[in-house]
Amino acid sequence: MAKELTSREENYSQWYQDLVIKADLAENSAVRGCMVIKPYGYAIWEKMQAQLDSMFKETGHVNAYFPLFIPKSFFSKEADHVEGFAKECAVVTHYRLKNDPDGNGVVVDDDAKLEEELIVRPTSETIIWNTYKNWIQSYRDLPLLINQWANVVRWEMRTRLFLRTAEFLWQEGHTAHATKNEAIEETEKIINLYGEFAEKYMAVPVIKGIKSANERFAGALETYTIEALMQDGKALQSGTSHFLGQNFAKAFDVKFASKEGKEEYVWATSWGVSTRLMGALIMAHSDDNGLVLPPKLAPYQVVIVPIYRKEEQLNSISEKVNEVTGKLKARGISFKYDDSVNRKPGWKFAEYELKGVPVRIAIGPRDLENGTCEVARRDTLTKEVVPLEDIDQYIENLLDEIQENIFNKALVYRDSMVTKVDSYDEFKEVLLNKGGFVSAHWDGTSETEQKIKEETKATIRCLPLEYEEEKGKCIYSGEPSQRRVLFALSY
RNA sequence: CGGGGUAUAGCACAGUCCGGUUAGUGUACCUGCUUUGGGAGCAGGGGGUCGCAGGUUCGAAUCCUGCUACCCCGACCA
Known about the structure:
It is built from 15 helices and 27 strands. The protein has an 11-stranded mixed beta sheet, sandwiched between helices. Strands 18-17-19-20-21 form a 5-stranded mixed beta sheet, with helices on both faces. It has a 3-stranded antiparallel beta sheet with strand order 4-8-5. By secondary structure, the chain is an alpha+beta fold. The radius of gyration is 26 Å and the shape is globular. α3 packs across α7. The two termini are 22 Å apart. The structure holds one RNA strand.
């Protein structure tokens, strides 16, 4: 497997599916383009959910739930929105099956045709704004800061495990504000929150920026994004936050009485991250031995493996382990003690490395005599013998160190993969031979962006929020430009 | 929807070109003994309508025809 992992010439997605399946994260289900997330993989998602949810709550957001089915007519109310999603919707047309009169099993009952078709939500703006209309009358009802944890369906022509599945899990925030500035502030607050989550918890460095008009969300005035870089040099859009202006308020007629007694349309935002983040986590950190999970998102941070010959030995090891786990528990460190008898230690070592468990402790007869244990860390694959006394403190420090090390490693790689170019030839050369982000001048037109995409497959990933003003010439058209933007091949 | 590929044991594959013993290998599974500090060893055992339907032949996993499913590449991807 090693070769495929490190070689960019190899088929990346093949490696990716092998790894994910082997790593017990997911497997393809019988339904085309959908995924089964196995318990270990789902545990990672739950960790992500819990952290994000608490960050949303801290910033004043609350959770709610809206229907899976959206009447077709809702979609036609916002022109850009319907255009963006029309081609990838699952549509419910009937509500009943019946036995086939010709005896060929079960068929759709034509008599049970729906008056109006229902769309399985690809995103919930329309049904939520239809509801908000009734919730908002006065400036006193604002801001409305709601998040929803849900599944959505997008009937993509081609799917890719975790990165673009037909059905995926996500959270979607939908907020309503009295003023334009407040809505923009909210949009920016959330993209910063996403950035903090990616970097501090996923240990994935991201570049925050805004999308070009071509890449903007259907129905938004501005789309903010966090862009991560995978180990094969491709970019991954990992989270987005949209400033929707008054588009949806106007489409769904959501008005409020201002302090001054005037009737005004509300200002809106929407934002989301999905199970795609799990793809980002895997592709940003994994190595030839499998997953590498950051301690803050690992389902268990420590795995303890006993090494023994006879049952009496296991008993005395287990006693020692109980002392250790008691101390770990007191510090809030999660662990798994794998004393199963049907696998040998070597098998367990390899298995937990594949699963990406940050720290492994092995305790055997030798350690019992010396009052020690063997501590192995996943990120560096190094081991050392450590006294059992104060092991909890040692592990706590080690977990912090691992979290930091994983991030720094990814950051060093990412920074090495941002290349400034000043000519189109150079641009194409870097895309072909190096990959990563290419920082270049662009004339600001959709036409140029489109041409570059057609010729190289590279798109503008974002106009970074942090940038230096710099006069230059567009690499494609030669027209003047005030700043560089980031191009990349992407998932 | 276009181009390419695959279908044989739970999983991963060989065998197909050039038809011919009882369809094989790895792994997983079951039994026993020995093992256990990096995916254990030996011995024995169970598991297959060779994707489906036709055809050619004394004889088909293998040749022919039709069908189906899946994978990869492309179009698509707020």
